[in-house]
Give the backbone structure.
Amino acid sequence: MSTLSTFMSSGHKTCDEAFAIAEEAALGGNWHKASDAFNAFHNDMAQHFRMEEEILFPALISSGGPSGPVSIMLMEHAQMNELIEQMADSVAGQDAEEYGGLSETLLIVMQQHNLKEEQILYPIADRILAWQMDELFTRLKAVE
């Protein structure tokens, strides 16, 4: 059986790969590819955030997990969503310089965020939610 840590971390990798493709295209001025890749990245991030915000975090809190770290993750999700919206505007305006600055900021925030989840929050979830792992995987995989 897979762990929540493994499953959720694979979502980080998917988002990171889509991010890199979009960034390369935008900085290279290939706006058609940048638009498609950015939309894929945006969709991947939105799906990952929904899995956490609608399923994982509530399950963790209701099972006695730490609310402080979850609150921090939610705050960071909001920060990342704001950056992503600004990046969408720079793609629409075909502004590589703005996109580059925003993507650099987002990359730093994502790396720090993912590290906290992968090293702290997901392992806690693996321990606290072990008794309902099958149900959680079913619900997480159903998120679109």
